[in-house]
Amino acid sequence: MPPRRRQLELKVSLSKPELLPQYLAAEYLNLAVSTFRRHVRTRVPAVLVGTRPFWRRADLDAWMERQTRLVPDAAGQAVKGVEHAAG
Fold first, then answer.
1. Domain residue limits, the chain
2. Which of 6, 27, 46, 75 is most open to solvent, judged by the fewest CB atoms within 10 Å of its CB?
3. pLDDT tens-place string over residues 18-36
4. Is the backbone of residue 39 left (phi > 0), alpha (psi -120 to 50) or beta?
5. Model confidence at 40: pLDDT above 70
6. Could you tell me if 36 and 29 are in contact, meaning their C-beta atoms sit under 8 angstroms apart?
Protein backbone atom coordinates (compact mmCIF):
# COMPACT_ATOMS: atom_id res chain seq x y z
CA MET A 1 0.00 0.00 0.00
CA PRO A 2 1.41 3.45 -0.91
CA PRO A 3 2.53 5.51 2.11
CA ARG A 4 0.01 8.30 1.42
CA ARG A 5 -2.90 5.87 1.30
CA ARG A 6 -1.65 4.14 4.47
CA GLN A 7 -1.55 7.49 6.28
CA LEU A 8 -5.07 8.32 5.13
CA GLU A 9 -6.31 4.86 6.10
CA LEU A 10 -4.83 5.25 9.57
CA LYS A 11 -6.56 8.61 10.06
CA VAL A 12 -9.83 7.22 8.73
CA SER A 13 -9.77 4.14 10.93
CA LEU A 14 -9.17 6.23 14.04
CA SER A 15 -12.17 8.50 13.71
CA LYS A 16 -14.79 6.73 11.52
CA PRO A 17 -15.29 9.85 9.39
CA GLU A 18 -18.38 11.06 7.65
CA LEU A 19 -16.45 11.56 4.37
CA LEU A 20 -14.80 8.62 2.62
CA PRO A 21 -12.27 8.63 -0.22
CA GLN A 22 -13.09 6.44 -3.22
CA TYR A 23 -11.31 3.27 -2.09
CA LEU A 24 -12.94 3.39 1.37
CA ALA A 25 -16.35 4.25 -0.09
CA ALA A 26 -16.04 1.17 -2.29
CA GLU A 27 -14.98 -0.92 0.71
CA TYR A 28 -17.88 0.48 2.77
CA LEU A 29 -20.30 -0.76 0.09
CA ASN A 30 -18.40 -4.05 -0.21
CA LEU A 31 -17.59 -3.33 -3.86
CA ALA A 32 -14.43 -3.45 -5.91
CA VAL A 33 -13.10 0.03 -6.72
CA SER A 34 -13.73 -0.62 -10.43
CA THR A 35 -17.39 -1.49 -9.69
CA PHE A 36 -17.70 1.62 -7.52
CA ARG A 37 -16.36 3.76 -10.37
CA ARG A 38 -18.70 2.20 -12.90
CA HIS A 39 -21.95 2.13 -10.90
CA VAL A 40 -21.75 4.48 -7.93
CA ARG A 41 -19.32 7.32 -8.57
CA THR A 42 -21.50 9.03 -11.17
CA ARG A 43 -24.75 8.51 -9.23
CA VAL A 44 -23.82 9.61 -5.73
CA PRO A 45 -22.76 13.23 -5.18
CA ALA A 46 -19.19 13.71 -4.02
CA VAL A 47 -17.71 16.45 -1.88
CA LEU A 48 -14.52 17.87 -3.35
CA VAL A 49 -11.71 18.57 -0.92
CA GLY A 50 -9.24 20.38 -3.12
CA THR A 51 -9.45 18.22 -6.22
CA ARG A 52 -10.13 14.92 -4.42
CA PRO A 53 -13.68 13.54 -4.25
CA PHE A 54 -15.08 12.17 -0.99
CA TRP A 55 -18.45 10.55 -0.38
CA ARG A 56 -20.74 10.95 2.64
CA ARG A 57 -21.72 7.73 4.40
CA ALA A 58 -25.35 8.90 4.48
CA ASP A 59 -25.35 9.41 0.69
CA LEU A 60 -23.85 5.95 0.16
CA ASP A 61 -26.44 4.43 2.50
CA ALA A 62 -29.25 6.21 0.62
CA TRP A 63 -27.91 4.97 -2.73
CA MET A 64 -27.76 1.41 -1.40
CA GLU A 65 -31.33 1.69 -0.10
CA ARG A 66 -32.49 2.83 -3.56
CA GLN A 67 -30.84 -0.28 -5.06
CA THR A 68 -32.87 -2.59 -2.82
CA ARG A 69 -35.90 -4.01 -4.58
CA LEU A 70 -38.93 -6.03 -3.51
CA VAL A 71 -38.80 -9.43 -5.20
CA PRO A 72 -40.89 -12.55 -4.73
CA ASP A 73 -39.39 -15.37 -2.66
CA ALA A 74 -39.92 -19.06 -3.43
CA ALA A 75 -43.42 -18.91 -1.91
CA GLY A 76 -44.37 -15.86 -3.97
CA GLN A 77 -44.20 -13.43 -1.04
CA ALA A 78 -42.53 -10.06 -1.65
CA VAL A 79 -39.33 -9.74 0.31
CA LYS A 80 -36.87 -6.90 0.54
CA GLY A 81 -33.17 -7.48 0.21
CA VAL A 82 -31.99 -8.00 -3.34
CA GLU A 83 -29.35 -5.42 -4.12
CA HIS A 84 -28.52 -4.32 -7.65
CA ALA A 85 -25.21 -2.68 -8.62
CA ALA A 86 -26.71 -0.54 -11.39
CA GLY A 87 -28.68 2.48 -10.37
1. 3-57+69-83
2. 75
3. 899 999 999 999 999 999 9
4. alpha
5. yes
6. yes
